[in-house]
Design a protein that fits this description.
Blueprint (H helix, E strand, L loop, with lengths): L1 H12 L14 E9 L2 E9 L6 H5 L18 H14 L5 E5 L12 H11 L5 E5 L7 H10 L3 E9 L3 H8 L5 H13 L3 E8 L6 H15 L5 E6 L7 H7 L8 H12 L6 E3 L18 H14 L12 H11 L7
Parallel strand pairs: 2-3, 3-4, 4-5, 5-6, 6-7, 7-8
Antiparallel strand pairs: 1-2
The structure holds iron/sulfur cluster and zinc ion (ZN).
Length: 339
């Protein structure tokens, strides 16, 4: 069921080609708290309007609805120049800059090589670190060396590994490449002297809460060999996805924040020197990771603080009446079939 459903959903969510000149504005931009080593800093985040992820056209990942924000065709050099100008006008010298495209910044069909270098030049005089996101096949010396040449700070290459388990990645997340391709790409990036970051997914569909936590912990233990930082992203329900289809039929609940707390506390013990963070999207909301509603702000605050300070020991002291319900429901999740 999942294969054909995923294909239908993927094709449904790609918008028709946008008229010429309509990609002159960024999808979004904002600033957020971050850290570079022990130093707390502001990060400037921007989302470029591009054609989006090619994999979303082929099949698409089960939780990803980002193609809704895309153009349905490649952005022209002049449209990208206008977006870069907009970013340049808004940038206030934040030390950390993160750029996303709802796909791969290093895919020439999304952002042409000249525009990529032009964007980095905007931040080169002030930013200490520039993060870009890409699928592993585009992370090569050919795409990265020109960026290194124009940006004197650190370039951080982020990849959506999601899980280090090949079966979970292929069957449940519906990714196009196995984990090994991500590890090989990260090793290539590191050999160029650049930083690597992996995004891991908490609770792909078809996993129980406890299985999802175990998957993140196992994945961190493997990813630490290849990535300088790991960010744990709990699933939030995005429009037009397989996960939304299941959610609307009450066959999927976004992860409990207690699962995220457990995943972070247990991953902290196996991460080695890799930086471990989580900044959940839609935290505390029905379509995002949530608890009972009362304790959500406290738990989210503790997770952000732990991520910024890299101190996860304080997570153990979090509690609420809903924790017992979470534990009870988690125990019931696997069907109690007698052997
Ligand atoms: S999660 Fe990444 S690889 Fe998967 S469809 Fe979305 S943008 Fe593409
Ligand atoms: Zn609670």
């Amino acid at each position: 069921m999942a294969g054909s459903l995923a294909r239908t959903v993927a094709l449904d969510r790609r918008p028709p080609p946008a008229p010429a000149g309509s990609a002159r504005n960024l999808v979004n931009q904002w600033t957020e708290p971050e850290a570079i080593g022990p130093e707390h800093v502001r990060a400037y985040v921007l989302i470029l309007k591009t054609r989006g992820c090619y994999w979303a056209d082929v099949k698409g990942c089960s939780m990803c609805g980002y193609s809704r924000d895309t153009l349905g065709r490649s952005a022209t050099h002049s449209e990208l120049a206008s977006q870069i100008k907009q970013a340049s006008a808004s940038y206030r010298g934040e030390p950390y800059v993160k750029v996303y495209t709802s796909g791969s910044f290093l895919d020439d069909r999304e952002v042409d090589p000249e525009s990529r270098a032009d964007l980095l030049k905007v931040f080169a005089p002030q930013a200490k670190r520039f993060l870009l996101e890409t699928l592993p096949e585009f992370a090569t010396a050919e795409t990265l060396e020109p960026l290194k040449a124009v940006f004197p700070g650190e370039v951080e290459v982020a990849m959506g590994l999601e899980s280090a388990d090949p079966e979970i990645l292929r069957r449940f997340v519906n990714k196009g490449a196995p984990p090994q391709e991500y590890f090989d790409a990260a090793d290539r990036v590191r050999s160029l002297g650049l930083r690597t970051k992996a995004y891991l997914l908490l609770k792909p569909p078809y996993l129980t809460e406890k299985e999802a936590v175990a998957d993140v912990v196992r994945s961190v233990a493997v990813a630490r060999e290849h990535f300088d930082a790991v960010s744990v992203n709990p699933v939030h329900i995005q429009g037009g996805t397989v996960v939304e289809w299941l959610y609307q039929r009450r066959r999927y609940r976004p992860p409990w924040l207690w699962s995220l707390v457990d995943a972070m506390a247990r991953s902290a013990a196996v991460r080695g020197t890799t930086r471990l963070v989580t900044f959940p999207t839609a935290g505390g909301r029905p379509r995002g990771p949530h608890n009972c509603g009362t304790c959500d702000p406290t738990v989210l605050g503790a997770l952000e603080e732990a991520s910024l300070d890299q101190r996860f020991d304080r997570l153990a002291s979090l509690d609420c009446a809903c924790r017992a319900r979470y534990e009870r429901e988690s125990e019931l999740e696997p069907l109690g079939v007698e052997s």
